[in-house]
Write a structure and sequence with these properties.
The structure is a single chain. The chain is built from 15 helices and 15 strands. By secondary structure, it is of the alpha/beta class. β3, α3 and β4 form a beta-alpha-beta unit.
């Protein structure tokens, strides 16, 4: 089965650290954007070899800004062109300030059964410099309100490695989330992306990022506390209770097919990878013309090998050797690196697979790159 990702490029305001594609001045073309995205859903139905969906993910941007009518339009188009599996996971990313009685009732009524809530921090100072639209009070009350409307699969996002965040404060943040009794937690280390407001703040020394040691200590504490609380670290940044791992994102790491809809959205069908332009006006204007509104590449065996390593090593199931051998025999240099990384206790190897250790997860991208063709 397949999945669909719908990128909603609307935001109330710009978070200082964010380099995702979005706009804060979208009202003049909002209706046209939604219409074009629905057209893309209809046009690209055949991109997937299996039109039975096990996951739909509304991401962004801020999809919690969609009106009830807009959501109903999306679901009408989805049902007309695809089949949803009986237990399909349907996720909506939401900001705490958008979690209201009215919105929650609407989301439940249209079929949303999973929420991914961007809490990020429980320090008002952090929320202010990050330019988040919500307060700590919003963060503290939103999960309980969502539960009262019957949402039983809730994920929250946290950021560690924040400037001046102490290990004790980070421990308190984790404790607050555990008290909320959510089913899933995604925790990401703060990264300073080029061309973001945060990049400029760091360059002008208005913000001083945490050092690598502090980031590592916070990451290892996170693993320890969530493991004790019964969460599986099934991917480096993602922790779920047993049976409640994110279906949609898991399928990315497993190399399953998915269709990406909207500006900047990526798609993958096992043969090619395709991505739409990261420009709202070009996406809308070029969609019904011969002009380009996407790019595409056919993946070589080398591309697939490297992708399997990059994504698979991030997961608790690791990389299966037969996936790689199906593309080509394991090079001698690859096998030598495995011996080296095993000696360093960065990975564990069986006859059939390789899996990163706790220490190895701290340098997952480096290890994958060393094993690339």
């Amino acid at each position: 089965m397949s999945g669909i990702y719908i990128h909603v490029p609307f935001c109330k305001q710009k978070c200082t650290y964010c380099d995702f594609h979005f706009s804060t001045t979208f009202e003049s073309y909002r209706t046209k954007m939604v219409e074009t995205m629905q057209q893309e859903l209809e046009l690209r139905r055949e991109y997937l070899t299996d039109t039975c969906l096990e996951s739909i993910y509304f991401g962004g941007g801020t999809p919690s800004l969609l009106t009830l009518e807009e959501l109903q339009q999306f679901f009408s188009t989805l049902h007309a062109n695809f089949t949803l599996s009986e237990n399909a996971e349907i996720t909506l990313e939401a900001n705490p300030d958008d979690i209201t009685d009215e919105n929650l009732a609407n989301w439940r009524n249209v079929g949303i059964n999973r929420l991914s809530i961007g809490l990020q921090s429980f320090k008002e100072k952090d929320l202010n410099w990050m330019n988040r639209a919500h307060s700590v009070q919003d963060a503290l009350k939103c999960v309980e309100l969502a539960k009262s409307y019957g949402f039983q699969n809730i994920s929250v996002d946290l950021i560690y490695g924040l400037p001046e965040l102490t290990l004790e404060e980070w421990k308190q943040h984790i404790a607050l989330v555990l008290d909320m009794q959510v089913q899933h937690i995604s925790a990401y280390c703060l990264t300073i992306e080029a061309k973001t407001a945060l990049h400029k703040m760091v360059a002008t020394q208005k913000i001083f990022p945490a050092g690598e040691d502090a980031q590592s200590d916070q990451f290892l504490l996170l693993i320890e506390l969530l493991k004790t609380a019964g969460f599986d670290q099934y991917e480096i940044s993602n922790f779920g209770l047993p049976g409640l791992h994110a279906v949609h994102n898991s399928n990315y790491w497993k190399g399953k097919e998915y269709l990406g809809i909207g500006p900047s959205a990526h798609s993958f069908n096992g043969i090619s990878r395709r991505w739409n332009v990261s420009n709202n006006s070009r996406y809308i204007a070029n969609f019904n013309t011969p002009k380009e509104w996407f790019e595409e590449e056919i993946l070589t065996p080398k591309d697939r090998w490297n992708e399997i390593l990059l994504t698979g090593l991030r997961t608790s199931s690791g990389v299966q050797f037969d996936q790689l051998i199906a593309l080509q025999e394991l090079p001698v240099s690859f096998q030598e690196k495995l011996i080296e990384f095993s000696a360093n206790k960065w990975l564990e190897q069986t006859d059939n697979s390789i899996v990163l250790t706790e220490q190895g997860r701290l340098m997952a991208d480096h290890i994958a790159a060393e094993l690339f063709l």
